[in-house]
Amino acid sequence: MHIAVMMFSTDQTVAPAPLARMLADRGFEGMFLPDHSHIPASRRTPYPRGGDLPPEYYRTHDMFVGLAAATTAAPGLTIGTGVAVVPQHDPFYLAKAVASLDQLSGGRMVFGIGFGWNSDEITDHGVPFTQRREVTREKMLAVRSLWTEELASFAGEHVQFGPTYMWPKPLQQPGPPVVVGGAAGPKLFRHIAEYADGWAPIGPRTIRDGLPDLQRAFEAAGRDPKTIVLHAFDPRTEPSVVEYYASLGVERLVINIQPLGPDHLERRLDEMAGLNALVA
Q: The pTM is what?
């Protein structure tokens, strides 16, 4: 199992390039960045973890710009999105940004995606919150077409375009691994089985209890359940938790850490570096 790190990199914390170098120097396999375009002042949507929305949500760097800086600063590092809120992105720019990053990183891009939880933010992008899953589905099917077909086209309810060219194609074919974040459920698993490669939830028990249903969804879609890619996002760093993830067959554990300045971040990463030996 690989261990990667995700942090909200903002204009008040360590920037993506030095963050990538810090991670590579300590033996971490990858770096993931989150995705928030803006935060509407209305704040009608409660923060899922309760309390006030943390200040870093308002100040995060653009995810794709940050990952480009990271892969330039630490070329051997896996880079990933944790997670891209697909309904908020234009499918052409989304396909091109991810394909470009996959090329620039030497095929080390992981495309984590989600449907989004902040209705204020999603609505500002012209997407009704109740339709975000179907919008995501069509955009991802369109992205797949742009990645794999020389002359791509798509005709859906939310996405339509005629024959078109788009390069570069991803270095990884038929595209970088697509893992979908979210809690277990039949609707989520149908989405994963249709257009993604795997699942990236929070919590090992979620994986343990939900994986059989995801495997059945793959079988129903005519796909081999053995090909399911498992990632996990978790802020916990206890060795027993890390080892449990590994025992479940998780390919990559992405540890979420608090946004920190240089001195505090170095100490935090030094404390975590020993986890890599648990899964080596």
A: 0.97
Domain 2-278: give its CATH code: 3.20.20.30
Give per-residue burial for 51-73: e unless 16+ CB within 10 Å, then b: eebeebbeebbebbebbbbbbeb
Full DSSP string of 45-105:
SPPTTSSSPPGGGGTBPPHHHHHHHHHHHSTTSEEEES-EEGGGS-HHHHHHHHHHHHHHT
Q: Dihedral of CA 114/119/121/125: which sign?
A: positive
Helix axes 262-272, 16-25, angle to 10 degrees: 30
**Residue that is written with structure tokens 């899922």 in the block:** 48
> What whole-number distance in Å separates Cα of residue 110 and Cα of residue 80?
5
- Domain ranges in the chain? 2-278
Residue 52 amino acid letter: D
For residues 251 and 2, is the Cβ–Cβ distance under 8 A? yes
pLDDT digits 0-9 by tens, 31-83: 999 999 999 999 899 999 999 999 999 999 999 999 999 999 999 999 999 99
Between helix 186-195 and helix 204-220 the angle, nearest 10°, is 60
